[in-house]
Prior knowledge:
The chain has one domain (12-97). The protein is globular and about 40 Å long. It is an all-alpha fold. 66% of the residues lie in helices and 0% in strands.
Amino acid sequence: MVGTEQELDASLPRAALVAVVSGQNAKAIKARYLEPIVALEDEDIVLPKRAEFAYYAIYNLFSAQVLQQPLDPWLVPNQALAAMGDEAAASAWERALGAP
């Protein structure tokens, strides 16, 4: 849209993570995600790549766990690792695998 300003709700990712644990507010959170996801996909909102990966990782975790949407099981872990950056992701991956 020309001449419009898009803003992300900074509290939405935390609310989605709370919903993953509690299962509450699923409909409200799903509705709150509609505009920002479309804005990101249309590039009406542009985030730094790591922030974008983090945003999508939380959204997709919420979608898979709370909304029971089928997703590739590696999608969320890959997005979360990409959000961490190469060095931190490699370290996290090694810790997860129990490497010394």
